[in-house]
Design goal:
Rossmann fold, alpha/beta, 7-stranded mixed β-sheet, 6-stranded parallel β-sheet
Amino acid sequence: MCNNLFQNSVPLMKAAVYYSLDNILIENRPIPKISSKEVLVAMKACGVCGSDLMGWYLKTRVPQVLGHEPSGVVVKVGKMVKEFESGDRVFVHHHVACLTCHYCRDNGYTLCKQFSKTHLDPGGFAEYFRVPAPNLQIDTLKIPPKLSFEEATLIEPVGCCLRALNKCDIAKSDSTVIMGAGSSGLIFTMLLRAFGASLIVTTDFAEYRLKAARQVGADLTVNPETESIIDVVKKATDGRGADAVIVAAPNVNAYLAGLELCRKGGKLCVFAPTQPEDFMRLSINKLFFSEIKLIPSYSTSHIETRMALRLIEAKRVDAKKLITHKFPLAKTADALQMAARNKNCVKVVVLNE
């Protein structure tokens, strides 16, 4: 931890700077200055997201300090800030909508122009970060005393999964399939179990993650290398197919399989982005007569983060079961390598203690 926070004329902090997945350096960066409507937060924990591992998504933005699932402690408060004070334990959402534009009025908060323009400064993988005024006003939440900083890092990813389930309008009687048992796939499994889905089938190629899926509520798990997902799902649904399929694996083949797993009139949730040049052939004729609904769901909003916090606090989503590996800030490169290349892990968290 940097000890000269407010003593030097240009106080410095440590930050993990991303140049590529194989080139992440710990550098000295100026501690951000805040305006009268902003706060400075000392990062305590920050989760590694799948998007932190997508080189195609990040290559035009380097060098960059990643990390958008942070929790920490407020250490400096702008003079016009009334709702927060030094010492508050907080979760901060990195993107927030304007709440007034056409998209916001239609509940399409993630489509708002402001949403993608709001960012933490410089990012969550740093000793300190500045919370811009819109983020502070709209989606900075105080962490309950009994909730750890590590657990609070799950608020954003749980919020993303909640938004997807809400968009898909999944009912208690629905049979569901989750393609991919990474951290998002396991969050979906937990949420569907908590909400009472009649059948939860979770698929993955890694036995470690399939075991984790069974532990958090999956009724059936399938490794596509050893058995047919279609046969398992058809048998479990009297030949119909699943009411809803959530694709949480960024792979065209997963989407093709997902369409085959959907029953007539079912829903396919597009949750994991593929590379821009990836395409799949889709029969409009089959889509028309099957009436399968394709429902994309990107990110989350201030609506779901509050729901996520309540669910984590109530242990309906047991965040501790998802966090499998922790690394200090100085080892952020190792944390991202673990998340990207080791299938014997679920959620990786970077700590700054």
